[in-house]
Design brief:
Layout (H helix, E strand, L loop, with lengths): L2 E3 L4 H5 L2 H10 L3 E3 L13 E5 L2 E5 L7 H7 L6 E4 L4 H4 L17 H6 L4 H6 L4 H11 L11 H10 L6 E6 L8 H8 L1 H15 L3 E6 L4 H14 L17 E6 L9 H8 L23 E5 H13 L1 H5 L2 E2 L2 E2 L1 E8 L5 E6 L4 H8 L9 E6 L6 E3 L9 H6 L8 E6 L4 H15 L5 H18 L4 H18 L3 H5 L1 H10 L6 H7 L1
Parallel strand pairs: 1-2, 6-7, 6-9, 7-8, 12-16
Antiparallel strand pairs: 1-3, 3-4, 4-5, 10-11, 12-13, 14-15, 14-16
Helix pairs in contact: 7-8, 7-10, 9-10, 9-11, 10-13, 17-18, 17-21, 18-19, 19-21
Amino acid sequence: MTTFYVPRDSAARSMGADGVAAALAAAGHKVIRNGSRGLLFLEPLVEAETPQGRIAYGPVTVDDVPALLASGPGHPLCHGNIEDHPYLKNQERLTFARCGVTDPGSVQDYISHGGFDGLKKALGLTGAAIVAEVTESGLRGRGGAGFPTGIKWKTVHDAKADQKYICCNADEGDSGTFADRMVMEGDPLMLIEGMTIAGLAVGATKGYVYIRSEYPDAIHTMNEAIAAAVPAGWLGANIQGTDKSFHLEVRRGAGAYICGEETAMLESIEGKRGMVRFKPPIPALEGLFGKPTVINNVLSLAAVPFILSKGGAAYKDYGMGRSRGTLPFQLAGNIRQGGLVEKAFGVTLRELVEGFGGGTYSGKPVRAIQVGGPLGSYIPASQLDLPMDYESFAAAQAMVGHGGIVVFDETVDMAAQARFAMEFCAIESCGKCTPCRIGSTRGVEVIDKITAGQDRDANLELLSDLCQTMADGSLCAMGGLTPMPVMSAIKNFPEDFDKPARLAAE
């Protein structure tokens, strides 16, 4: 009997992983449902445990199982030892070191692969010492804003209150992003550990994981992991026999993109409609239920166990400039080898899209790449050598965001993409502020006039003024960032907004 690993990750399941796992089990083999390695172009990826390591096969269908069992490494779908696969071998996996390796629901498996080492260390430190370690690491918010995590934690640590909270924003709604989901489905105990350490750091005893409603597998797996961590003494009251406690609950998202904005998320957790709050006060001082609250993205909190275990200096060794550590980049769109690639900041778009991604799925030249979700800039192929770090992207009027990379080939209509950005904002706006609510609707109308050839120059000027108003006057990033994809499309692909030129090209 051979032990096989078949991902329970929802991307793998959507490609038939459940059927493959059932076929292997029916043949009398032991099957462990692990997380995904992130080589999504090979899912379902099946790994067989051997004395030489895990031998990978993929993408495997139910019909492939009999021949795979008969042929073993001689099967055409065999990729050899998974650790030697170039897609995986050339990464720097800190956050995703265990993802695809361990059983997500097993506390013992997690511990045997270095899990809870950071929490063990944190239990012996003061809150201030934990905050100092995170500050030393240079960790910045992985949700998009890039705010220094240590500063946020120190603010909550120093605040005086009878109750404090840790809120994990897992409302991963950006296009082309799936790293948060992969953490929660593949290594949920790491997120639990990171949130517990955050609670110890700032004096919070209660936490919430706000997971988007479209992630039922992540919600199930996180609840499963919480239920396993409590009796094992790693979560709840008197953690590992100490006087430290931290309680954690999952909250299902409200199905709205705006709830990914931190204050709208707080409103939703409190049972209200997800609408943006005015600032000040900032959530670090008056957040959930009016109490000091740490709000971090999944990837920010998931980086904390490594930082506490290995030290802030070890994490800071990765990256460049003010962008320290690693970021799990997510390759999507028109890409040959889509998946997750964790690399230190400083890797270029070209290395990610052409090196790991293998270029476009269509085989046609890359024309544009949108980085940072639906509100990120459209970057032309001429800027493929742009290094992935916060400052380099800001200088190019773009943003790294959550690390989502969506690739488009030469057939893309950039005027249509600009219109989509405005339309998306109009649909997803909470409606609280006029620049976002009205500006996005007017933006769609103006772009339609431009593409129809009506007073092109005058309407382009009007669109530019409208975008400036939205950027300067919106309450949050929903309206404030919508101009970024629109203006980048106009700047980098002006021919798509010129009707005579478009007609001539056709």
